[in-house]
Design a protein that fits this description.
55% of the residues lie in helices and 0% in strands. It has 313 residues and is mainly α. The longest helix has 33 residues.
Length: 313
């Protein structure tokens, strides 16, 4: 679902620049296969540096239009998003049981809500559309699902702290992205002239370009938070199939017990033990002289069976 907040950026800026990174990395259309789209973006982000991303995304951005009034306009747009995010997250963390409900959900449901958040952020009004995801290495399904979903809870807490900050502007810190702030100027002199519009030959302000990209990075994050949270709230309100089991447990369990169970889930392994085709076989079926070098479970079970047999002799 698209983010519920509306921006009026279209008054002075285009909806989106042409797709650059999504085209460069041949990213699958999210409407065709959301999970494949997510994996391809994660791989693209992992293979890129902040410098490369900013260089690519700035190719069609003319810094002559980045006047003080324009920058103030961008900042006001971000602040509107952050104010909405701060209000919603503050209410969720202080008046509800969002974090407990989230942790109790199964991983399939968690992944679905995160994907909905990414879809909403990609559809929101930012300068680069879905390409803005390349500015947000921390916003990935795998990161947010760590520790049984606690990764998302911790991320929302950091976003809330940033959104409630009195600093202007309030940017969510990220050491990977901040490496792009020290780019040499201009970088596009190293780019073949045929690939660069004529206007790119003018001098560029690295500081302004980085700031505009950072504003859009934080807007993308804000819209992701709103869309993912609204997706969860919608399921709670409508008691969806994937949510009603959790709600039944919450309604029939003391609060401290539900919280304890939710916290216990954060200690589980993020990935199950890998088992091979021999896991369910008996020693006779496995045969003699077989050496196991991959599946620890087989080694453990086989040795346990031998120990039990020995003790019964």
């Amino acid at each position: 679902m698209a983010s519920a907040i509306e921006d009026d950026d279209t008054v002075k800026t285009p909806n989106h620049f042409p797709p650059l990174l999504s085209k460069k990395f041949n990213i699958t259309d999210i409407k065709q296969d959301a999970l494949k789209w997510d994996k391809e973006w994660e791989a693209a982000i992992a293979s890129s540096t902040a410098t490369d991303v900013l260089k690519e995304m700035s190719r069609f951005l003319d810094d002559s239009g980045l006047t003080p009034d324009a920058m103030e306009f961008f900042h006001q747009g971000l602040r509107r998003v952050q104010n909405t995010v701060a209000k919603i997250l503050h209410d969720l963390f202080n008046k509800g049981h969002f974090d407990t409900i989230w942790l109790l959900l199964n991983v399939t449901e968690k992944k679905r809500h995160i994907i909905e958040g990414l879809k909403g952020a990609c559809e929101a009004r930012t300068l680069w559309g879905q390409d803005c995801r390349a500015l947000c290495p921390e916003v990935t399904v795998s990161n947010l699902l760590t520790q049984g979903g606690k990764g998302l809870v911790d991320f929302l807490a950091r976003v809330l702290e940033s959104s409630e900050s009195s600093l202007q502007p309030a940017f969510l810190p990220n050491s990977w992205w901040e490496q792009a702030s020290n780019l040499p100027n201009p970088w596009w002199e190293q780019t073949p002239a045929a690939d660069v519009p004529p206007r790119r030959q003018v001098s560029q302000s690295t500081k302004l370009l980085f700031e505009v990209a950072t504003i859009n990075r934080n807007k993308f994050i804000g819209h992701f938070v709103l869309s993912s949270v609204f997706s969860v709230i919608s399921d709670i309100t409508n008691r969806s199939e994937g949510m009603k089991g959790v709600l039944h447990f919450m309604e029939n369990t003391k609060g401290y017990v539900a919280r304890a169970v939710a916290q216990a889930k954060t200690t589980f392994r993020d990935k199950p033990l890998v088992r091979c085709e021999n896991c369910t076989k008996t020693p006779e079926e496995i045969g003699q002289g077989v050496r196991f070098m991959v599946c620890i479970w087989v080694v453990f079970v086989d040795s346990l069976r031998i120990s039990v047999q020995y003790s019964l002799m």
